[in-house]
Design a protein that fits this description.
elongated; alpha+beta
Length: 627
């Protein structure tokens, strides 16, 4: 018995700690509903404070999901707010919050608080079926008991008693409360002894269609106006993007010179960046191994097949690029002799990627590869593209604002972003992009376009049924695709960029197309031309092509490679050597990635004719709290 008493005491104490420090001993609600359905409300409360407080907050809900259209939101208008106490009004989280009281004074004991305001839901929610007044006289948000409740709700025209329901209790309760209807059938009156914390009292009245004079919001009519605008917006931007491309994005035709050498002071990473945009990866690192070997900076030993050792001979000179010096230092971070196993433990592959931005940083100011005006215009156009995608979706939602605005804006933003990135990736990697990768990116672009069209179809047809609603998604999708291509292509080379790209293409053409007779003459002038060119052939993907040209030509053995198992070292041997070293490097990368990969281990409810409603299911709502 003693333990039970202690339990009851602790339970009561816990409840008191979380409950409000007031209760209501008398709550009278008086509502006058006019012919337009607007409610003029007066709330008269006797609030009993059990601890000193400045006053209370009265929160009135004004944002609801439309029970008749999931794509839209109802915004009730709460205005003409008055009180017998100092009043501060704010809006937050879908509620009009009334702060009642004075921050310089404390209230204690019983206090009368009087509030009046107008509440208007706006248009007819069920325009084709019936009119209704569905309202939470007291919502299920009060964290205190409410005693001695009375209400009076008057209407402009007679009501039918069998179409009136008053429910009370916990949220969702359909328990009926007693009420009376005045002889003139205009006023509903009722009383209730008590509501506990988080219980509601709700009134629902159903009338014939047209009882209220308020007009339904004609979503279809508005949609017929805004849908053509949402077609016009992407079309106009597509025209702008095309004109912008014609002015800022068309390069002069390239005229690659005949050249037997790369651009002056360019290593393979530099050549790859100029030729291939941003592609700096496994091939470039592999190429640098052979470039350094030819320069005399390192030697390569292969004791067994696919077992490579790099032996440092000297440092990269200080006048070489920072990117090259950093990558070389990273390679020999553990010492002057390293294997792929050593590089794997040092996570060389991951750290090497941090060197690549330094390559891009070399091409700035007077050596920038891109025209500054063109670059600036492209950035502006990307931002405008995404902005117009959002606007195009938002314009549609003007017909039925709410969730639709957010849904269409997000769909358009994500869809257009993916389309642009896919198109930009294809364009920027045009020279060396494989057909398979281009096909995959094109397929992704088509899938996103289809999803974009489908999503806009669904939303449009929820608003109206006509030809414009059907063609708008297709026109918008094609316009944004054209815009994406135009914006991604708005990238003009600078004079320096044009000159260096022409030299790189000319050098690639030499590696790919040089005739044997010409090659023999070049060998006489430079016996090491095979090794000098080999690393550049790698970044162009032409190492086998270059080796094949020397198949029947004598090349002297290089001084930078040793293997006890290979005696015949012709051009095809070095082509095979590159494949083996690239394979080892990629295998090292996979092991590093595998090691670093994580292991897996409220109110406004829908109603229908004859439905009694339920406690807390009506419009309005909110509650109160002390402060």
């Amino acid at each position: 018995m003693k333990r039970f008493a202690i339990f009851i005491f602790v339970l009561a104490l816990s409840i008191s700690l979380f409950a409000e420090n007031f209760y209501i001993d008398g709550y009278d609600i008086n509502i006058k509903v006019d012919e337009a359905g607007k409610a003029h409300i007066t709330e008269d409360m006797n609030v009993v404070f059990t601890a000193p407080s400045h006053g209370i907050y009265r929160d009135i809900e004004y944002i609801f999901s439309n029970p008749n259209n999931i794509w839209s939101t109802i915004f009730a208008k709460v205005d003409n707010i008055k009180s017998n106490m100092p009043l501060s009004i704010s809006k937050e989280n879908g509620f009009v919050s009334l702060r009642l009281g004075d921050s310089s004074k404390y209230l204690d004991g019983k206090q009368r608080i009087l509030i009046s305001y107008d509440y208007d839901l706006g248009g007819d929610i069920y325009p084709d079926d019936y009119d209704e007044f569905y309202y939470n006289l007291i919502s299920a948000a009060w964290d205190c008991p409410i005693r001695d409740i009375s209400y009076s709700v008057s209407f402009p025209k007679p009501l039918e008693k069998n179409r009136i329901w008053v429910t009370f209790g916990d949220y969702g309760s359909d328990r009926n409360a007693q009420f009376s209807l005045s002889p003139d059938m205009l006023t509903i009156n009722g009383k209730l002894n008590v509501l506990e914390s988080y219980q509601a009292l709700t009134l629902r009245v159903e009338m014939d269609n047209g009882y209220f004079s308020r007009q339904a919001k004609d979503v279809g009519k508005i949609a017929n106006i805004v849908l053509p605008i949402s077609i016009l917006v992407p079309i106009l931007f597509a025209l702008y993007a095309i004109l912008s491309y014609r002015r800022y994005g068309i390069d002069k035709p390239l005229t690659p010179p005949v050249t037997f050498h790369p651009p002056k002071d360019f290593n393979p990473m530099d050549v790859s960046y100029v030729y291939n945009g941003n592609s700096l990866g496994d091939d470039e690192v592999t190429a640098m191994f052979f470039y350094w070997a030819d320069k005399g900076y390192l030697k390569i030993e292969e004791r067994d097949k696919n077992s490579f050792t790099f032996i440092k001979q000297k440092d990269v000179p200080a006048d070489e690029s920072k990117a090259e010096r950093n990558l070389f230092a990273l390679l020999f971070k553990q010492g002057d002799t390293v294997t792929f196993k050593d590089l794997e433990s040092e996570e060389f592959g991951l750290k090497a990627t941090k060197v690549f931005p330094l390559v891009k940083a070399q091409f700035t100011a007077s050596e920038s590869l891109k025209d500054p005006k063109s670059e600036k215009k492209k950035k502006i156009n990307i931002a405008l593209l995404l902005l117009f995608a959002i606007i195009s979706g938002a314009v549609c939602s003007l017909a039925s604002p709410g969730l639709l605005t957010l849904v269409l804006a997000i769909i358009n933003l994500i869809g257009v972003s993916i389309i642009y990135l896919s198109v930009a990736n294809i364009i920027s990697k045009f020279y060396l992009r494989s057909k398979f990768k281009s096909a995959m990116l094109s397929l992704l672009c088509l899938i996103v376009l289809f999803m974009f069209v489908l999503a806009n179809f669904v939303v449009n047809l929820s608003l109206t049924y006509n030809v414009v609603a059907l063609i708008q998604p297709i026109v918008a999708a094609l316009s944004f695709l054209i815009s994406s291509i135009a914006v991604a292509s708005t990238e003009k080379r600078s004079e320096y960029g044009e000159r260096t790209l022409e030299e790189c293409i000319g050098y690639k053409d030499f590696i790919e197309r040089v005739e044997i007779d010409k090659l023999k003459l070049l060998i006489q002038d430079d016996p090491d031309i095979f090794y000098r060119t080999l690393s550049y052939a790698i970044v162009f993907g032409l190492e086998d092509t270059w080796a094949n040209k020397f198949k029947n030509l004598y090349i002297q053995k290089c001084s930078w490679y040793y293997s006890p198992t290979d005696s015949l070292m012709d051009a095809m041997f070095y082509s095979s050597l590159i494949r083996r070293s690239r394979h080892c490097y990629r295998q090292m990368q996979r092991e590093i990635i595998k090691t670093n990969s994580p292991r897996s281990g409220g109110g406004g409810s829908h109603s229908f004719s004859g439905f009694s409603g339920f406690s807390g299911g009506g419009f309005s709502g909110g509650g109160g709290r002390s402060w």
